[in-house]
Write a structure and sequence with these properties.
Length: about 160
């Protein structure tokens, strides 16, 4: 994984529209999908049964939408955007999430991120909004698009 620790100027205008380097590719495996299915109790055949899934419109097993969404935690280590002096970051949630295209097991995915907003809500507390797109290698549509919100605390 790329080392993406990028220190940011806290000036809002400087960071608005900042496009981060795409992350490295990550291959989604059947084992990963099976473990996620066990954790979430979502064991629908399209995720865990290759034989049955082959007869579905997808033609093979696919990752859960929420699995692809949860991979943002992993990818965020690559595009880690930090304000100088930051000692803690907190996931605040999403304004928008759309699952656009299924991710077939064996596919490779990577994340594209654009900073859309950084606002100092309180002294030393910065709200981030990022536009996220999860690319599927060779695909014509992203797996998902989202507006991700987080907070950084600064000394």
């Amino acid at each position: 994984m790329q080392n993406g620790n990028q220190l940011l100027n806290t000036g809002r205008a400087y960071n608005r529209g900042r496009i981060c380097e795409p992350t490295d590719w990550f291959e989604v495996t059947q084992e990963q999908v099976n473990v996620f299915a066990d954790c979430t109790m979502d064991r629908q055949f399209i995720h865990i049964d290759p034989e049955a899934a082959a007869k579905s419109p997808f033609g093979r097993t696919i990752a859960h939408g929420f699995l692809t969404l949860s991979m943002l935690a992993y990818f965020s280590q690559s595009f880690s955007l930090s304000i100088e002096g930051s000692y803690m970051g907190v996931n605040k949630g999403f304004d928008k999430v759309r699952f656009v295209a299924p991710v077939a097991v064996g596919s490779r995915i990577r994340c594209h991120t654009t900073v859309t907003e950084i606002i100092e809500k309180k002294p030393g507390q910065y709200d981030f909004k990022m536009a996220i797109s999860l690319e599927i290698e060779g695909g014509d549509k992203p797996a998902l698009v989202a507006e991700w919100l987080s907070v950084q605390m600064v000394n």
